[in-house]
């Protein structure tokens, strides 16, 4: 699965258009950014409700393909600008973390 496939899978919208469509190596769900730094899969995605610039920093550190922000959380402008600069997709979905994680898991592990 590539980053672009997440849009339809999670009925999500992209917060910006300046990201690379990358293959997804795995997924991790957490709202504790130090936990995500320690355990997220490199070149994977992070499913979270943490909508701020520091989430993008974790994405950069782990070379994530995308950040999936759940529950339609609003995104601050500085988060979007940081994600654009790092070319990390930020996808926003109305899905809960539980539902988004389940859908991604089922898709990655048929």
- Succession of helices and strands: HEEHEHEHEH
Mean pLDDT: 96
Q: What is the CATH third-level topology name?
A: Udp-n-acetylmuramoylalanyl-d-glutamate--2,6- Diaminopimelate Ligase, Chain: A, domain 1
Shape: globular
Residue share in helix: 40-55%
- For the biggest β-sheet, the strand order reads 1-5-4-3-2
| Coarse structural class | alpha/beta
CATH architectural label: 3-Layer(aba) Sandwich
Number of domains: 1
Q: How many distinct beta strands? A: 5
Q: How many distinct helices?
A: 5
Strand content: 15-25%
Largest beta-sheet characterization: 5 strands, mixed
Evaluate the radius of gyration: 12 Å
- Roughly how many Å apart are the termini? 12 Å
Question: Please, could you describe this protein's structure?
Answer:
With about 110 residues, the protein is of the alpha/beta class. The chain has a single domain (about 5-110), classed as HprK N-terminal domain-like (Udp-n-acetylmuramoylalanyl-d-glutamate--2,6- Diaminopimelate Ligase, Chain: A, domain 1, 3-Layer(aba) Sandwich), CATH 3.40.1390. The protein has five helices and five strands, in the order H-E-E-H-E-H-E-H-E-H. It has helices spanning about 5-10, 35-40, 55-60, 75-85, 95-110; strands spanning about 15, 25-30, 45-50, 65-70, 90. It has a five-stranded mixed sheet, sandwiched between helices. The model has no long low-confidence stretch (mean pLDDT about 95).
Question: How are the SSEs ordered, and which strands pair?
Answer:
Blueprint: H1 3-9, E1 13-14, E2 27-29, H2 33-39, E3 45-48, H3 53-61, E4 66-69, H4 77-86, E5 89-92, H5 97-108
Parallel strand pairs: 2-3, 3-4, 4-5
Antiparallel strand pairs: 1-5
